[in-house]
Amino acid sequence: LEAEFLEILDSLVLLQRSSFDRVLIQTDNLEVVKIIQESQLASANSVLVRRILQLLKLIGYWRIRHVPREENRVADSLAKMAFGKKEDIRVFEEVPKELSHLLEFDIDKNAFDLY
User: Which CDD domains match (predicted)?
Assistant: First the structure.
């Protein structure tokens, strides 16, 4: 779980520096989703979770949701493409060609629904 929380925290730090005011966190780890959601109502035991919640408050509008890996194939593929890269962040201006068919599938499954 700690690795998943660290990934979320690192991503939120990058988003905050970029002045984003909305964020959708998707993870295939249901336990992570439950911990973050429940920690909004009660005091978080984990320093990482408390820091994540602090950053989310600064961002403003946010949502976290559990999406099984098989229903969010674009995120899974992007994570695999970025794995092992030395850059801190990788920005895609356009959808990589090898992911366009997966994007259509994920859109049909409402994988990117913010509301």
Answer: RNase_H_like
The answer to whether 96 and 81 are in contact (CB under 8 A) is yes
Task: Name the residue type at position 40.
Answer: Q
**For residue 81, what are the domain limits?**
69-115
Residues 113 and 76 in one domain: yes
Residues 8 and 62 in one domain: yes
Query: What is the 3-class SS of 52-69, one letter each residue?
Result: HHHHHHHHCEEEEEECCH
